[in-house]
Amino acid sequence: MYLAVLLGLTAVITGCSTDGPSRFFTAQYGAVTDAGYTLPSIPVEKVPSQFRRQIVSYKTAEKPGTIIVDTKQKFLFLVQENGKAMRYGIGVGRDGFEWSGTARVALKREWPTWTPPSEMIKRQPELAKWRGGMPPGLNNPLGARALYLFNKGGDTGYRLHGTPEWNSIGKAMSSGCIRLMNQDIIDLYNRVQVGAKVIVQ
């Protein structure tokens, strides 16, 4: 009995540990089978702790359910009740591809098709083979999920999406999209509603 209780406590501590004001979800980066695909586990010990999914104290006038992207700190905050937010580490646009503004989540897609824009194909002609769309899969640049951002002018062309390149989190490497580890984009996808406000700053 004592051993069972001890093991149970160990599992809880591993899954959601507390470090000051933050709650980490370190056990949430294991292999995931989803829609017939098996996402590999992420070597979370190689991911700086600040970029691991965690609940943090966060003061804002924005309503719960709002997404706030801090491109300088490389964090995405999903505003929650009672002065809290779920925080995720992100990768952002490299020099010359940064952007900021307000948008809304217009579409959500599981295992999306990736279609490189014509401007990207001009820069990287080898991507022309995917002009009609790259099928979903473990190597697809959009990863396991994508949230499509629209503003008053329509589709911004920017996405919040997964990536198989977990080691790009915390860096400026993308063409402007905001990327999360696949296990994190699945978590975010499940929490966010179509129509959610997104602030990129």
Automatic annotation (TrEMBL):
Biological process according to GO: cell wall organization; peptidoglycan-protein cross-linking; regulation of cell shape
Biological pathway: Cell wall biogenesis; peptidoglycan biosynthesis
Cross-referenced SUPFAM superfamilies: L,D-transpeptidase catalytic domain-like
Keywords for the protein's UniProt record, in alphabetical order: Cell shape, Cell wall biogenesis/degradation, Glycosyltransferase, Hydrolase, Peptidoglycan synthesis, Transferase
InterPro entries found in the cross-reference section: LD-transpeptidase, LD_TPept_cat_dom, Transpep_catalytic_dom
One Pfam family matching this protein: YkuD
Sample GO molecular function, one term: glycosyltransferase activity
Annotated GO CC locations: extracellular region
Residue ranges of domain L,D-TPase catalytic in the record: 65-201
Catalytic residues as annotated in Swiss-Prot or TrEMBL: H161, C177
Family recorded in the similarity comment: Belongs to the YkuD family.
This protein's name: L,D-transpeptidase
